[in-house]
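Hi all, posting the design record for the shared folder.

TITLE: backbone redesign
STEP: 1 of 1
STRUCTURE INPUT:
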């Protein structure tokens, strides 16, 4: 991915975090490789992010395999995980959303945020991110790398 595209993607994730007050967003491949990361207080310990990316990729893979045993050729579009109770201050949600066939976005946010607003904003962000992971964009990136 070109350096310019990487900066644009990170800016999209940062703007999303700032406008919604989510805690963290991780853009990753289906095998857990982190493409981009944004969170309010970036820690120097990147192993936590790698672990979270791998965990989300594993959850998406298990859910995808389960769906395919019920219905062939169906893809998971979104997975929602809630930790804690609705009234707890330290409870949070993890949403995993498909961006393309092999790219996913995971966001983490407190239960106190409005779930509907987050879903609405997430749809807008996914639409923006899909522009960077369309087949034509991938061919352009691969072509630039082979020159």
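Okay, here is what came back for every position:
SEQUENCE:
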């Amino acid at each position: 991915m070109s350096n310019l595209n990487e900066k644009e993607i990170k800016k999209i994730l940062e703007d999303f975090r700032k406008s919604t007050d989510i805690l963290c967003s991780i853009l990753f491949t289906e095998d857990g490789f982190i493409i981009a990361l944004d969170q309010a207080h970036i820690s120097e310990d990147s192993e936590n992010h790698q672990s979270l990316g791998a965990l989300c990729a594993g959850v998406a893979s298990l859910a995808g395999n389960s769906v395919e045993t019920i219905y062939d050729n169906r893809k998971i579009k979104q997975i929602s995980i809630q930790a804690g109770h609705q009234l707890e201050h330290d409870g949070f949600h993890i949403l995993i959303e498909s961006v393309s066939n092999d790219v996913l976005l995971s966001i983490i946010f407190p239960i106190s945020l409005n779930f509907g607003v987050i879903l609405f904003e997430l749809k807008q962000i996914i639409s923006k991110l899909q522009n960077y992971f369309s087949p034509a964009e991938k061919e352009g990136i691969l072509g630039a790398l082979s020159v």
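COMMENT: The longest helix spans residues 47-70.
Let me know if anyone wants the other runs.
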